[in-house]
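Dear colleague,

Following up on yesterday's call, I've attached the two folding results inline so they're easy to grep. Please treat them as preliminary; we haven't cross-checked anything against experimental data yet. The first protein's sequence and structure tokens come first.
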Amino acid sequence: MNRRRKVPRVDVVGIGINATDTIILLPHFPASDSKVELLSADTKPGGQVASAIVACQRWGLRTRYVGKIGDDPAGKFQVREMAREGVEAHWIKAANSSSQTSFILVDARTGERTVLWKRDPRVAIAPSDLRRHWLQGCRALLVDGHDTAASTQAARWARDERIPVIADLDNLYPGVKALLKCVDFPITSKDFPSRLTGEQNLLKSLPQIHAEFKCRLTTATLGSLGAIAWDGERFFLVRGFKVRAIDTTGAGDIFHAGFIYGFLQGWSFEVILEFSNAAAAFNCTAFGARGRIASLAEIDNLRRTAARSKRAFTSKQLLEASQTAIRKFPGLRPRSANNDK
């Protein structure tokens, strides 16, 4: 007789990248064949899924993280940080290998960053590394698009258990289309939709992805301009919040955490996206991927009081694009944030 292993119930499980980041603050981005004196260099924890899970934990969700590390000081650093945050972590350790590291160059004038990263192939998560019972009883699954075979395996298990799947997608890694077939809520960089579809117009590529992979909501982040999403019938354009940004590292990670938090609260898509934008904006006001994970009260205050960015698209553009998409992809009725897939 098969018996399901009992594991503690959690709200969200995250499976994906962790990284040890060295944040290098520069007075300006260096030109080719030049020398620039750095302003500071600090080592901080990061990684897309790992940082998002930490934010969810700080906001009061019950969290579980699954990641892979090497047997080096950076790996031990990751273990200590997750334990300090109170996250239930399951570590897969690769012998004689190095954990993922990043060197992040931050332009002090704008807060924009350039990421230089190195990943030992041995710390890639394989499907065989995963255990199905890690998903048992959770309310949402977050994966990234790096180790797509493992992410796809986890997403399939989640689909079998009717667990909503959120995916953080920024680059066109092999196997990402197979992953997307099991994703309810893809959240992408602004450039990912064009890379995937070949369509440069975001108002056309988002509906195309949504229709092809039968998503519940398809979202692209727009940096300081906020985010845009398509639900099969209309676009949601949520403008960004104006803050004094000093480092944009991790903004997307905290956006994903905000999306998960809002989704699990049962909020509407518009409120979820606004909350996510505000949380991401706050994180840009300090250094590092987890530099300023603001409290729920701080995020609520920013939503009520902060100035907003300009619109990435006009109302007319959104209306015309919606009408075009509905004609091109008929029969895909939108579902609310809390309808089952």
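Below is the second protein, in the same order (sequence, then structure):
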Amino acid sequence: MKPLEIADVGFTYEDGTVALKGLSMSIGKGEKVAVVGPNGAGKSTLLHLIAGFRMPFSGQVTIEGRQLDESSADDLRKQVGLLFQDPDDQIFMPTVEEDVAFGPRNLGLDDIEGRVARGMKSSGIESIAKRKTHRLSYGMKKRVAIAGVLAMDPAILLLDEPTSGLDPRSRSELIGLLKEMDRAMLIATHDLEAAAEIVDKAVVLNVGMLMEGTMRELVLARDLMHEAGLELPPISKLFGALEAMGYPVDDLPVSLDQAVEQLTRVMDREGKHAHAHIHTHVHGGREDDHKHSKAAAGELQPRDEK
């Protein structure tokens, strides 16, 4: 049984705007899927529909083996954790631990104290349990919102633009957090570079599904990327430029790890050497990871055309 199955789903707003049409997809246990597409493509509508906030709709949505409809929506919300794009729309209790406890308590779940402790530990916020929520940074508020969702122990997480508005460090930390979670996720995002680090596959949405595949397959579909209003991640653009200069690029990487792997192969074929070095420093009880990717041994020359 899969956490989420969607079959031929459609949704039209009261003003006649068609938001979703003929959408079918599924998410397996522990699988992470990105939903990408232009503004107005139906990404947020899809998340809200799965969470039971868009009724009625056509087609069928099945969550943990149960069909979603108006009679089952309240109960099935216990299986779905929705993270809003703006954490200020989700956080409203005075302290962190009170806010994390609100969801489980509101749903009438048991072991509130244990759920709060597990949610905060998973999000790395145990040390700020007593802090006032209105004094937190934007990135820390996102962590608190995620902890509140995790405290309800949902079968699937629905994340709406999770990296939006974050500074580089907070963004990197959140990507690492989501990457390590062993949970089914559906992530609506414009951040393809972040998605490449987190997800197993991507769905391109523009009212209906345009494509389903890996992130690498997506960036190679240039016409589809243009049609969907998507822009290549900077790393993919760099390797596209290398390819245009005559270097033998097998695939366009979409993440740093993929780029190092690809660059190593390119330089080895050119008789060069690439070295990736990861060094960890520990200062005053706080661990900071510093990742250094080093490309050594001279300048590359464009490959001669034959």
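For the second protein, one point worth flagging: The mean pLDDT is 85.

Best wishes,
A.L.
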